[in-house]
Write a structure and sequence with these properties.
By secondary structure, the chain is α+β, with helices and mostly antiparallel strands. It is built from four helices and five strands.
Length: 159
């Protein structure tokens, strides 16, 4: 679904830094202004409001099931727009020698994200400012999704 279709509808925003800036920034990249209808610092409260028809939300985390704490369902719909990629970084202190555990974790992370992310475009990644156990890949797309309430479609009206 395109963000332009959602921008005029009531948005339920996860209101914690840096999420607040990231989610509104997705709209701003496309010169859109979301209608902020409700805000909460709680991920589950946001999902519950969406499930109960308060509005839609844009989130990057998807729990293992699509039911909220009150038993209502939400649906996750991918964003269709071409957006600036998010950065996924695993860093450690440059002066600290990485342990075998850290190296194994870094390898696991790289393998995991190579499986779930789309193939990267040919644009070269910029050099990271700090040392990292895993290469910083800035050329992969962000993975936000849209959560909808009971009817599993965009909210109707602004009630």
């Amino acid at each position: 679904m395109a963000l332009a279709e959602l921008a005029p509808e009531p948005m339920v925003l996860l209101d914690v830094a840096p999420s607040r800036q990231y989610f509104t920034g997705l709209f701003h990249q496309l010169k859109l202004e979301p209608v902020l209808h409700a805000l909460s610092p709680s991920f589950e409260t946001v999902r519950g409001m969406v499930a109960n028809g308060v509005g839609y939300s844009v989130l990057v985390t998807r729990p293992s099931n699509d039911l909220t704490y009150d038993g209502c369902a939400v649906a996750c719909v991918p964003i269709a727009d071409a957006l600036e990629p998010a950065r996924i970084v695993l860093a450690h202190l440059a002066r600290a020698r990485p342990t075998r555990l850290l190296e194994a974790f870094a390898e696991h992370c790289v393998e995991h994200f190579l499986k779930i992310l789309p193939p990267k475009p040919t644009a070269p990644a910029r050099k990271a400012r700090s040392k990292s156990s895993a290469p910083e890949d800035q050329s992969r797309p962000a993975l936000p999704g849209i959560a909808y309430g009971r009817d599993r479609g965009p909210p109707r009206g602004r009630g």
